[in-house]
């Protein structure tokens, strides 16, 4: 069974719906306190997908995700390794990392996204929304056709809620921006009801550069986004569910958000099968 | 040892948009009329920890600086360019919670890979603002105190930039570990009263005499035991907070002599609580059990009420108020209100419930108030904004969705606002093989304090909230919450209780350890507390201060000695501070010591049962009210527009969107829905988990303005409002069929002005108390009529603000916060019209009941005909609506409340922009048909194919009004005339741009401009 590790503790607060998402997608989720990983009681290498859920890690007092990213980058275990060292190895082994909302902020502040240079140096940042406010509202996203990540396979749009105060992606310079666009790393874009990219508030709820809601790294294995697909696992999460069900009583009871989790779980399963076949044919 | 002090400054790069600076400049202009010119905001971190220059620089640039956003300056305090002429520095006063400083300290520890001594604060966070204009000292002061901070918790430095002064708090100092005696014997009545007032005991003469007499009778006994004959300061503090109105509910337990001046009827009421609340629920429980509905598990006896969801789990529900602190420090008052209320379900029974949702009801003065404020009275807009922010952080940062709420405006809340916080939670029926809702303690069990540390914050909160506010109210009563500290404790409790490491837990709220240990000790029959072990935020607290401090985010746990080591290890793993501060006994004493010295030794029986019972007088004066004569209405469309744009009806979207209402992924009916995201809903619906479709509907009923006409009908109407909101979303009344298991759990929260008669200071006290009696009578009648039990509640009895010889008293207010089980959340209904040609019905009956209505308020009138609740008819109707929903006959349902039918029809169009064409044919006046606020009514739509079945089922209780249209117009006809005709988008616009969103909403142009700065992606 595909194993998903979901970190929690220190103010992370979306771990339960994250676990539900993986369970519904057919994987086995394990929620683990960050200290159990930092103290070496749990190894991320025993898992296929490493997940950073949303919340307010350490209260976000120094800027979203900063203190947690700092802990992963500097705190050394008994062997003198940081968790960031382990995560880089995890990615090098072809495994997957997902960060949502505060988790996305952590991945960005850690330099794992977009990591154009491959040396985990922060290249972009996520900061206060242009409105200056925290907001909870539903948005529509368009998947970049150039995206190259199993998380978004076969998807073109999705609806999801945003719930953040610091989701504005800022790209420091033109060259970085061009690289990101060229390689299709800006995988999710805020759009209007017809699927057209929009910069106007509230379609783009935070004023993000490139109207970008989510990024992958150059391998497509690390994926982060501000909106919350794990908050749309069921049709009944959607603000229009009563009308949609009226219009189509046979409508699926699953929410759009679940597709991302199904995608990655199926990908890992297929990959495992493939490896199994290769191993069998090689022997 | 004194280490050198260094300062790190983070400034936004010149190319980055300084949103905060811009907002400060805008708010200064908008709210204070001050022109600041450009404002630059910067963050300061003052470090008092020995670091080399290299370490300081690395820490600043690698841990604090965002290289994309910030420039760093070390040991400098300068703006980015030379245009700025004034500054405002906002630091925290000593001992005030500084989460940002602590986070930076945490980061420093990680960066250095060193465990920092957490007993000392090494890093202090501050904000430094630079202003373009050279403002006079008093303007800078105003800006600082009214916009940027609060003088109760912040220290400000302001002035011309050339004279910049820094400030960093130095906690500590003050008194030593001293316990003093407070002799009472021989004091005169005047001296007793003065002592109570000076020391903020909030005890009256009779209570002070009871304490004095108690000490006189036990003098010999105490001396034999080696104790001083006179009470210690700590003993009096413990008695004062245990006997406080806040903790003991003395007025709800009093004997009341009641007289109705109009009828001459008199009666004696032996405790409002017993008569109208506890006994009423006992009767409801009897009827429920008779019918096989035995889901009522725990009522009135713990931190929160508990009902059974199913054989595996309990639903735990609590609503409380935090009014006095919110009046003084709106942000701090509200956030500690939320977090404090969260601790109630968390610490019910054994403890460790999982929080499911929050809800909040707020009462404020008019935020557009433009008159003179009294001394120390905060502007209603500022209270509103501060409370709103407190709720945002309290809920969002704890990961608890704020699923709904309500805001009521009335000028009489301008002195003391009302801040009601509610929290629902789920707890397994069994925890490690024990009944989760039970609290068991044996002698020798250890007392463990968990969570935050103790400081001088919140001293006297319990007694302070039991008296009126005035201009001298104490700063120490203010507390600041730390949601992150509490989140850690919450995560810890969930795991520790499931491992069976905790026997029971309770919250450290009002009264601090004194209250939590004092109450737990009643289970075993006593306790010994060793105060020197209590971890402090800083030195210099006296023992009594340690014991009664209300420093936040703390729990007291009872732990079996054999499980202690395992528990302490789990605490270390999860970074939750646990301290063994003593043990439970069975000797009948609360025995408090400091380093072996006696600090307090109190007989538990006297402490908990020794308070003299109050005898109060109530006399109902007749209310002179009459229906007004209004000029003949000419333009009903315009009246509807004005109602939609009025303070109590207009959209609250700008508030709602700043609360996370869907974290946990289980919110099924949210506060705003539909394609527009602007259709207001009646109750929230939340699933319990992802495995079943069982869930809970959550509603709030509050109608204070009807109380000016009839307190009984105000209370009855509030109750009915909350019930019908739950019916409107598809909930069902309890006990309709044997063993249906449809639990209801209701909290009552009374917030009234001082209702104790005093000829000089409170001449109409008897009338106010009579109103409270009436409110309670209505509550009893409502619970009986609907068979709905109360499970917990609270009363707040002194909601008055006195300053400069003026008293502002809240109107008598009661909130009923209701929760009801829904077997299948997929059967939930929403308020919005969903399809063209659906048939629109009015369900229920309209009466000529415009008294107290928003329509009359629009004309500056109160009227007389207050809406009455007809319980029997209402119950019958609610049952029918439930059956119709079971048969899938209803497509939308919206309850009628403020503004009556006209407003409800308009709101139902807000979700999708469908219009409606309706005709009113009733016999009442058109004004009454449109705007009367008669209770127990709904606007519902029915698909054309279901009309026959629906009408047959409703048996004449539903009136066909017309149909849903696709033309986007709301048209109302009467006697052959079109009386209302409006574009629904325009009505929505009026509603959305009402005073609430105008005062605290976004400046959309500014946001659009700021968004412009972003670049395009896919092109």
UniProtKB/TrEMBL annotation, chain A:
<keyword id="KW-0963">Cytoplasm</keyword>
<keyword id="KW-0378">Hydrolase</keyword>
<dbReference type="InterPro" id="IPR029062">
    <property type="entry name" value="Class_I_gatase-like"/>
</dbReference>
<protein>
    <submittedName>
        <fullName>Phosphoribosylformylglycinamidine synthase subunit PurQ</fullName>
    </submittedName>
</protein>
<dbReference type="InterPro" id="IPR010075">
    <property type="entry name" value="PRibForGlyAmidine_synth_PurQ"/>
</dbReference>
<keyword id="KW-0436">Ligase</keyword>
<keyword id="KW-0547">Nucleotide-binding</keyword>
<keyword id="KW-0067">ATP-binding</keyword>
<keyword id="KW-0658">Purine biosynthesis</keyword>
<keyword id="KW-0315">Glutamine amidotransferase</keyword>
<dbReference type="Pfam" id="PF13507">
    <property type="entry name" value="GATase_5"/>
</dbReference>
TrEMBL record, chain B:
<feature type="binding site">
    <location>
        <position position="318"/>
    </location>
    <ligand>
        <name>ATP</name>
    </ligand>
</feature>
<keyword id="KW-0067">ATP-binding</keyword>
<dbReference type="InterPro" id="IPR036921">
    <property type="entry name" value="PurM-like_N_sf"/>
</dbReference>
<feature type="active site">
    <location>
        <position position="246"/>
    </location>
</feature>
<dbReference type="Pfam" id="PF00586">
    <property type="entry name" value="AIRS"/>
</dbReference>
<feature type="binding site">
    <location>
        <position position="793"/>
    </location>
    <ligand>
        <name>ATP</name>
    </ligand>
</feature>
<keyword id="KW-0460">Magnesium</keyword>
<keyword id="KW-0479">Metal-binding</keyword>
<feature type="active site" description="Proton acceptor">
    <location>
        <position position="322"/>
    </location>
</feature>
<comment type="function">
    <text>Part of the phosphoribosylformylglycinamidine synthase complex involved in the purines biosynthetic pathway. Catalyzes the ATP-dependent conversion of formylglycinamide ribonucleotide (FGAR) and glutamine to yield formylglycinamidine ribonucleotide (FGAM) and glutamate. The FGAM synthase complex is composed of three subunits. PurQ produces an ammonia molecule by converting glutamine to glutamate. PurL transfers the ammonia molecule to FGAR to form FGAM in an ATP-dependent manner.</text>
</comment>
<feature type="binding site">
    <location>
        <position position="796"/>
    </location>
    <ligand>
        <name>substrate</name>
    </ligand>
</feature>
<comment type="pathway">
    <text>Purine metabolism; IMP biosynthesis via de novo pathway; 5-amino-1-(5-phospho-D-ribosyl)imidazole from N(2)-formyl-N(1)-(5-phospho-D-ribosyl)glycinamide: step 1/2.</text>
</comment>
<keyword id="KW-0547">Nucleotide-binding</keyword>
<feature type="binding site">
    <location>
        <begin position="550"/>
        <end position="552"/>
    </location>
    <ligand>
        <name>substrate</name>
    </ligand>
</feature>
<dbReference type="InterPro" id="IPR010074">
    <property type="entry name" value="PRibForGlyAmidine_synth_PurL"/>
</dbReference>
<dbReference type="InterPro" id="IPR041609">
    <property type="entry name" value="PurL_linker"/>
</dbReference>
<keyword id="KW-0658">Purine biosynthesis</keyword>
<keyword id="KW-0963">Cytoplasm</keyword>
<feature type="binding site">
    <location>
        <position position="479"/>
    </location>
    <ligand>
        <name>substrate</name>
    </ligand>
</feature>
<dbReference type="Pfam" id="PF02769">
    <property type="entry name" value="AIRS_C"/>
</dbReference>
<dbReference type="InterPro" id="IPR036676">
    <property type="entry name" value="PurM-like_C_sf"/>
</dbReference>
<feature type="binding site">
    <location>
        <position position="507"/>
    </location>
    <ligand>
        <name>Mg(2+) 2</name>
    </ligand>
</feature>
